[in-house]
């Protein structure tokens, strides 16, 4: 048996939406879980973040993932996210856990002000 492939569905909160990503999860979690069980998912897990929710799903075959994603119930749930145009990310692998953005500081501080400029003639 081959290892499971993980897929992530990230639902982002939308400022202009009537519902939050957490409300969407509460409305669709049971029907999505039932369809995952009946369509061969080996595992799934919900995660909640300050910006939305993530559903991570594992299937042993990519075809099973594609079939599950194409189900009318799955498509209806994904169409009902708070912001279907900019608030839905579907990708392979684990998602949402990359952490907070922290800008990198340069290894060598800029020193342009330390260079002597030639004197004008």
User: Which architecture would the CATH scheme give at its second level?
Assistant: 2-Layer Sandwich
Number of domains: 1
Which fold name fills CATH's third level, the topology? Answer: Alpha-Beta Plaits
| Category from helices, strands and their pairing | alpha+beta
Determine the strand fraction and express it as a percent band.
15-25%
Spans of at least 5 consecutive residues whose pLDDT stays below 50 are: none
What is the average per-residue confidence, as pLDDT, rounded to a whole number? Answer: 84
Approximate shape: elongated
Q: Sheet with the most strands?
A: 4 strands, antiparallel
Which percent range fits the helix content?
25-40%
Counted by DSSP, the helix tally is: 3
* Rg value: 22 Å
Helix/strand order, N-terminal first: EHEEHHE
Q: What would CATH call the class?
A: Alpha Beta
In total, the number of strands is: 4
* Gap between N and C termini: 79 Å
Structural description of this entry:
By secondary structure, the chain is an alpha+beta fold. The protein has one domain: Alpha-Beta Plaits (2-Layer Sandwich). The chain is built from three helices and four strands. The chain has helices spanning 21-38, 62-70, 72-79, and strands at 5-12, 41-49, 52-59, 88-92. It has a four-stranded antiparallel β-sheet with strand order 2-3-1-4. Strand 2 and strand 3 (52-59) form a beta hairpin. The radius of gyration is 22 Å and the shape is elongated. The termini are far apart.
Helix/strand layout:
Elements (H helix, E strand, L loop, with lengths): L4 E8 L8 H18 L2 E9 L2 E8 L2 H9 L1 H8 L8 E5 L29
Antiparallel strand pairs: 1-3, 1-4, 2-3
